[in-house]
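lol so apparently i was supposed to do this last week
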Amino acid sequence: MSLPAADLSKQADHLSTMDLGVVLPATAEVRENHLFIGGVDMVELAREQGTALYVYDEADIRERLQEYRRAFESRYANSEIIYASKAFINKEMVRLVASEGASLDVSGGGELAIALAAGFPAERIYVHGNNKTPQELEEAISAGVGRIVLDSRLELARVSEIAQRLGVVQDVYMRITPGVEADTHEYIKTGCEDSKFGFTMREDFAFNCVEDVLAAPGVNLVGLHCHIGSQIFALHSFAEAIDVMVELIARIKERYGLEITEFDMGGGMGIAYTVEDMPSTIDQLAEVTIGALLGSCENHGVTPPRLLCEPGRSIVGTAGVTLYTVGILKTLPGIRKYVAIDGGMSDNIRTALYHANYEAVIANKAGEPRTEIVTLAGKHCESGDAVLLDGSIQTPELGDIVCVFDTGAYCRSMSSNYNGQPRPAVVFVRDGQARVVTRRESYEDLMMCDV
Ligand SMILES: Cc1ncc(COP(=O)(O)O)c(C=O)c1O
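anyway here it is w/ pyridoxal-5'-phosphate bound
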């Protein structure tokens, strides 16, 4: 796919780094025209570690986890925050989540293996996925994970068989598609009726399947789950989904006599990728969703269940940035200005996939206004390979260090080795210290699995 045509009338915004506000990681600052994060000079870090480079502001991640816990637990003590590790996972991130007292959502055997290797308590792990293989299910059940989120009847049969064989009873949730249209990009809507995820509510299918779950030996139905999509700004979508789910909980109690004691509302909270984006706050999310839960429970005569919230993007998205070096400058008169960087769709697929928007600055000119409109093109063999589409930036020169903000979620975790590109290192910065938490891949790594 090629790029959308540039809007040639677009003017640079003349903002400098600190004008970018909510888009910046918590500790971003400018010192002597250089961008600092976590007290570390991004220009020096890029020179030491090479580029492309993923950098995370550790204080920002911890702050978000604490903010989520505070916002939910202060309003409703019977609540829990589960970090959705698909947004970004490595062993150090898992340890950080554990140290902040949050639980962990894993999707598939690989994320589970990383979580267990990092010593995360199995009973606080929630296992998701629309096609967990029998082997993945067996790994999860034998590890003693807290909850498996059932996605289909076939999976129910598999979990039941494995649990009986292992002589355990596995606590499970049912993932429900509540038929609520979240106001977000098509590719990241998941709660609408035509979805590969979960049990549909259409024609009472999910409701009738409860009977099968209750009849299956080796499984114990304790909760329901829904996840309506990602990068959601309109909080009313969450409230609508919660109301649908509570009504279902009430009907389950009435028909089957079963009290559903846990309800996982999924993740999906949006973040600001550009200065124009106006996401809600975590506090507002907690206010609206807890209000909706308690209100619906009262209306339907249901005892309020434990509420679990499962954010990914809004924990790590803003904390993470990607650093690149400018390698080629190419102006096509009347078309656009390309600035080619030493990464692209292999480290950030979001722009090529759905024309995601970002803000970027030149880290070694961070105090200057952004006076040019450029496209940050990647180095891969696809004409749609870009990270920033027609965005404002300081005047670029060869060798400049570009910093693209808000790349902490779904970039590293969706990265690839396309064109034989080794994946960048991941560095955590905090209090003036930088530590490599995932090393850069080498050419040898690219061939490691070849026989
Ligand atoms: C089941 C489930 N929970 C949580 C999340 C996290 O969503 P977000 O990163 O938008 O908060 C996802 C994302 O796809 C998901 O599928």
